[in-house]
Amino acid sequence: MMTSNFNYSSAASAKDFKINSTSLQAENLAATEEDSVNYRKATFTKRHLFILASTFLLLIGGAFSFYLLQAEFKAVNMNRMNTLGGIILLIISGFLLVFRLGFLTYIARLFFKYKPVNSVTDTELPSCTVIVPAYNEGKLVYSTLESLVNSKYPAQKLQVIAIDDGSKDDTWEWMKKAKEQWGDRIAIYQQPKNQGKRHALYRGFNLGTGEVFVTVDSDSIVEKDTLRNLVSPFVTNEDCGAVAGNVRVLNNEKAIIPRMLNVSFVFSFEFIRSAQSALGSVLCTPGALAAYRATAVKNCLPEWINQTFMGKPTDIGEDRAMTNMILKQGFHVLFQRNAYVLTNIPEKFSSLHKMFTRWERSNVRENLMMSKFAFKTFRAGSKSGPRILLLNQWMKMLTTYPLLLIMLILLVAHPVLFITSALLSILIFSTLPAFFYAKKYNIAESFWIYSYSIFYTFGLFWITPYAMATASKRGWLTRELPQKK
């Protein structure tokens, strides 16, 4: 989870960004800023309506059951108060609730302080190297490169490098086609074998000549103003070392999982990262779209490419690792809400949980790394902001197993009461991201966050504890060859 030059809506973004290069180019030329800023259209099939109706029947049923079962809830709570374990559980639950609400209030205050940096003039724009690593992306990489070439960025200041990481499909052929189409506007390279995204980016960083490095995933489409908006903070803020782009979902027209995640992405980026940016401490610059000051990258490049975890080379979390290493140098890491990118999201559960597992393993590793410098004098000015953000990350990790154990005990001992209270909690706590999305984009689409919360609570709750237990495991998990339809 628009500004400027692609015409799309939340429900129809995949449609408007067809991977047909001719239609993409036509849309780029025809779209206007007014059309693209707002995701206001929403289309629903009977299947969509059935899922949303079922979601609210379930949640309203849970809330009504909670009301009907007040006597049972009271009896259980009274029994807990008669035992030491029950009292401890009540105290811990109360503390976690207060901490969570307090942190959310803190983030909300920061959100209202945030303002994106407006684009600087063509003369002020720095030279920029865009690096696109690709593996088994096929025709998608052509569309990615097309969107970059069509950017409103001075051609003489823009270097685009695409690197095929030993793909097994026709990715390299599409790169060659892009090269034929745009000539010197694009440089293409092919790794001798598949070495992983980090090594492809490393090659690009060494080949790049720009003052700013931008990384873009090969299944992502940028708007025409994205690059100039993304790099402008480097001009206006000498302390800026990295900038995170605003990621939205590309393939969310029909598939249910991407459609649900689109609302979640908006909250994660436009609310959470906006608040982090107000502190100069965005914790992760996303692989789909990020910019780095070239000197900052070069300062940590040897450490980054040779990074290990528990004695094994690290082949995941290259974005969070780079962010950490730039923060450690004393730079600020910002977020540009006006720098949009649309990216593909897994449409199947099997691919989604693998992606989330990879992200969580990276979080475990990089939280440990950040803890090594966050409580030292790693930069000038206030350091309380990044420390609070890190403590929140640790709170989530440290409570993972106790909460999982409590959940299993309650599920066995009081299944009806547990499910009822869980549904009521989902209804309450999903309202903030739903309201946020509805106010900014589309009311009807905002309802998907409730479906996603149910899906995550009962289908993906195990991701974090599993990732923590297997944090040392290597592997991208989702880099398999796309299935032909």
Automatic annotation (TrEMBL):
<keyword id="KW-0812">Transmembrane</keyword>
<dbReference type="GO" id="GO:0050501">
    <property type="term" value="F:hyaluronan synthase activity"/>
</dbReference>
<dbReference type="GO" id="GO:0030213">
    <property type="term" value="P:hyaluronan biosynthetic process"/>
</dbReference>
<feature type="transmembrane region" description="Helical">
    <location>
        <begin position="449"/>
        <end position="469"/>
    </location>
</feature>
<dbReference type="GO" id="GO:0005886">
    <property type="term" value="C:plasma membrane"/>
</dbReference>
<feature type="transmembrane region" description="Helical">
    <location>
        <begin position="84"/>
        <end position="108"/>
    </location>
</feature>
<dbReference type="InterPro" id="IPR029044">
    <property type="entry name" value="Nucleotide-diphossugar_trans"/>
</dbReference>
<feature type="transmembrane region" description="Helical">
    <location>
        <begin position="49"/>
        <end position="69"/>
    </location>
</feature>
<feature type="transmembrane region" description="Helical">
    <location>
        <begin position="403"/>
        <end position="429"/>
    </location>
</feature>
<keyword id="KW-1003">Cell membrane</keyword>
<keyword id="KW-0328">Glycosyltransferase</keyword>
<dbReference type="Pfam" id="PF13641">
    <property type="entry name" value="Glyco_tranf_2_3"/>
</dbReference>
<dbReference type="GO" id="GO:0085029">
    <property type="term" value="P:extracellular matrix assembly"/>
</dbReference>
<keyword id="KW-0808">Transferase</keyword>
<protein>
    <submittedName>
        <fullName>Glycosyl transferase family 2</fullName>
    </submittedName>
</protein>
<keyword id="KW-1133">Transmembrane helix</keyword>
<keyword id="KW-0472">Membrane</keyword>
